[in-house]
Design brief:
The structure is a single chain. By secondary structure, the protein is of the alpha+beta class. The protein has one domain. It contains six helices and nine strands. The longest helix is centred in the middle third of the chain and has 11 residues. It binds manganese (II) ion. The site of manganese (II) ion (MN) has 6 residues, from strand 2.
Length: 266
Amino acid sequence: MPKKTSQQKKGSAGKKPAASHNADESARAKLAEYRRKRDFTRTSEPEGGGARKAPKLAFVVQKHAASHLHYDLRLELDGVMKSWAVPKGPSLDPAVKRLAMQVEDHPIEYNSFEGTIPQGEYGGGTVMLWDRGTYGYGGSNPDPEEGLRAGYKKGDFKIVLNGKRLKGSWALVRMRGDTPGKPQWLLIKHNDEFAAPGSDVTAEHLTSVATGRSMEELSGGNSRVWHSNRSEKRKTGSNTGRGAEEPQSPKAPTTAYERLMATRRR
Ligand code: MN
């Protein structure tokens, strides 16, 4: 049966991921940190775990005015959204490398979350759906899903985005010497027809890709919205109100992202 014409065989039959029936369990385990950090009686963010696997892999970028403005890049892989906080957001300029700090896996349901996380809760602030779509593999492995998994593991994650605002080939490259458990990556646009040297895509698009609303409109007027020309002083202690069950472990009380931003502002 050497009928092995490779690729084109996208039929439903042969494609049975080995760990398919373990997927739910595996996604639940991956979401443990996400859930631990949140009080779902207080935030309208999804608990996750109930989403069906999409036929195509999803990606989303959420603009998040938390204690510091950042963009959350999320890429579906094995039942969860692998997630990175990108302080400056993506750039279409191949010469620009954007720091992307990996954060906990998020549930696939998070992809439709837009709104306000209450102040004092984890990540409190306004979340805007800034871009979304599907993505695929940008490397040379003949099995795209395997290529994605291997690339992610290796720290050389080659992706092709098909969003409204972000398109084409990109790489996430893990930096050496990062903190175990909180890897730091660089997000880099490859030079293709969607590259735009010198452009500033986050400044060009200031509204929700889903609803057209601005950050101000999303915040409903009563929530803190980040302004680049205003210093944010009052937020220093905000993450202490997370709830009684937050373990007093040796783990630092703030995220790697927040620690980095704090050192940068000194
Ligand atoms: Mn965030």
